[in-house]
Design goal:
By secondary structure, the chain is mostly helical. It has a domain of 83 residues. The chain is built from eight helices and three strands, in the order ααβββαααααα. It has a three-stranded antiparallel beta sheet with strand order 1-2-3, with helices on one face. β2 and β3 form a beta hairpin. The relative contact order is 0.10.
Length: 238
């Protein structure tokens, strides 16, 4: 959230009921916890009997419902990522939007949504143009467009001055050199700039929750299972 500009104010924006909490690098923390849990729990999955999916007992994933709609004509309503193409009328046609759609024999039908509230459209539009700059930069190997994309990103601009943003982009290009052949010449220049740089960085203090241990997550999951079991029994009584 780009409006969290002062470290002492950041905790006010933390939502403790949300899995990513809203804290600095919350998504990264959640991914670390998921990875650690998977590495610990996966051997237990292998010991379990395979799940038996039937037409009456299918998973909650969209895939089977989409296939069913396409093959049988039974209409399925879901939310899909599609090229906007006028669906949301106050966003660019070429951007990708996630909107309610219907699937049947005719394929995916995308109803027109119309205008977003102007405040929502303003936030979305800024993200769209940052992404457009980044795509154009990647296709053309244009470092100027890449710098502009990073500078236009509100999260980056909230904590970094332009020179810091340029240094960060240079560092990212060098780190990803083997996967970015279109930037070969620019990466060579970036290495020279980084070696000669005398820029003094001023780290910005964020607010990040501690990554839970596997033991803590196991205790939490046990607690939630007991609560779910108790709730299920209560529903049966009702």
């Amino acid at each position: 959230m780009w409006y969290r500009k002062r470290p002492e104010e950041m905790e006010k924006w933390i939502n403790y009921s949300s899995w990513s909490q809203g804290e600095t690098a919350g998504y990264l923390r959640a991914c670390k916890e998921s990875r650690n849990w998977f590495e610990t729990d996966f051997p237990n999955w292998l010991k379990e009997a395979p799940k038996n999916y039937t037409p009456e007992n299918r998973s909650s994933e969209h895939g089977s419902y989409i296939i069913e709609g396409l093959e049988t004509g039974r209409r399925y309503r879901g939310h899909f990522n599609v090229i906007n193409n006028g669906t949301i009328t106050n966003l660019p046609d070429e951007c990708v939007v996630e909107v309610p759609c219907y699937v049947d024999y005719n394929g995916v039908s995308v109803p027109k949504v119309g205008d977003l509230p102007i405040g929502c459209a303003a936030v979305c539009s800024q993200s769209v143009w940052v992404q457009k700059l980044a795509v154009e930069a990647a296709v053309a190997g244009d470092i100027k467009l890449l710098y502009q994309a990073a500078m236009m990103d509100p999260l980056t601009g909230a904590v970094c001055i332009p020179d810091e943003i340029k240094m960060m982009v240079d560092e990212m290009l060098v780190a990803g050199e083997q996967w970015l052949p279109q930037y070969k010449k620019e990466i060579a220049n970036a290495k020279k700039r980084l070696k000669a740089s005398k820029l003094e960085l001023h780290p910005v203090k964020g607010f990040t929750l501690r990554t839970k241990t596997v033991e803590e997550m196991a205790t939490e999951k046990c607690k939630y299972r007991k609560l779910a079991s108790a709730a299920a029994k209560e529903n049966i009584k009702l």
